[in-house]
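Structure, all two chains, one model.
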Amino acid sequence: MSLQRVTRSTVIDHPIERVWPVLRDFNSHVHWHPVVAESHIEDGLLPDQVGCIRNFRLKDGAHLREQLLTLSDRDWISTYCILDSTIPLYRYVATVRLKRVTDGDRTFWHWESTFATPAGRERELTEQVGRNVYQAGFEALRLHLAPV
Amino acid sequence: MIRVYTSSVIDAPADAVWQQVRDFNGLPAWHPAIAESRIEAGAPSDRVGCVRNFRTRDGGVIREQLLTLSDFEYECTYSILESPMGVDNYIATLKLTPITDGNRTFAEWSAEFDCAPGRERELTQLIGQDIFQGGFTALKQRFLKAAA
């Protein structure tokens, strides 16, 4: 199985000090990502404990367990992998990386993953991850951070 | 070691911005602080190791050597061989990253150098604001005009 790579990036009109505290919390997606219905960190670990597992369910009923592999407050990086998923994403490893946009005090957000899929479903699943998870996440976090 | 980091968003695809900035002899075409430039010894401007010899609008002569050029990473690294700025061990990197959301470009320009004690703030301002941000502001203007 060849590895697929999905990359999406955006700019958030908030300083990195505002964006990173949300994204570094491995369980925060339940509060801002529209596809996540419920989520908890297993075994009572903290959501910034490297090795912790988030166990969550999507609104369409899919169930996933993901493990935090890297968390860097120095470089604003979070890397995680899928342990179990009802969606056929194999060897899935994703990285969220923020960078400061000094011109305007904004945040560049880069979200990337590699994974394998069942033969013939590459396009469908890369679209699903890129659009429904990453791009939808960008738009949702923007709303979450905006003063209403 | 002093570090300077400046980043911006340019409203044009990374391929277009890269075409403008990858020419190591091309500063006078887009950077408002640079009056004229030539490559020493008749070398092509994308030959790694070539030296650009250029003059700033205020009359300073600077010689810089190309250390890395990557059309894959949209990245260029160079060092200062001679300059009137009073910096030592100066190495700078200009890097572009595509922003998929809106097909724009995240541009980063960073440098590391040593200098005499007490000159850190002045040089950080000169390099980070006048040179790097000045270049980004000019690129933003240029692509604004190109789109209009």
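Chain B touches chain A at residues 5-9, 97-102, 104, 106, 108, 128, 133, 136-137 (CB under 8 Å).
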